[in-house]
Design brief:
The chain is of the alpha/beta class. It has a single domain, classed as Glutaredoxin (3-Layer(aba) Sandwich). Helices cover 36% and strands 28% of the residues. The protein has four helices and five strands. Strands 1-3-2-4-5 form a five-stranded mixed beta sheet, sandwiched between helices. β4 and β5 form a beta hairpin. The protein is globular and about 30 Å long. The termini are far apart.
């Protein structure tokens, strides 16, 4: 088991969004979660609850999140989308890391 909790239903996602004391990060991927993504989930565990979503298994979830490519990351704060990075662009990932390290 990795650092991410798997989302397999809308109910799982709704429950995750109830989190108010941490960011909620959804890592959308196809196939396998990268080791780097697992490393980041562990690194930010004090400020972020990390979830994974295999969009090849749940294409309707990709549509719901507005994800057009994998891997992508969507971050929620108090139930609302706070950031999205599609394609895991390095400069955007740096900005995201700075945001997550500060906590909610």
């Amino acid at each position: 088991m990795g650092a991410h909790t798997e989302l397999t239903s809308k109910a799982d996602f709704d429950k995750a969004l109830e989190t108010t004391d941490k960011y909620v990060l959804v890592y959308a991927y196809e196939g396998e979660v990268s080791p780097q993504a697992e490393s980041y989930a562990t690194k930010f565990a004090s400020t972020v609850d990390s979830y994974k979503l295999d969009i090849s298994k749940y294409p309707e979830a990709a549509k719901f999140h507005g994800i057009t490519q994998a891997p992508s990351i969507v971050v929620y704060k108090s139930g609302k989308e706070a950031a999205k990075v599609e394609g895991v662009v390095p400069e955007k990932m740096k900005e995201l890391g700075e945001m997550l390290s500060k906590g909610v």
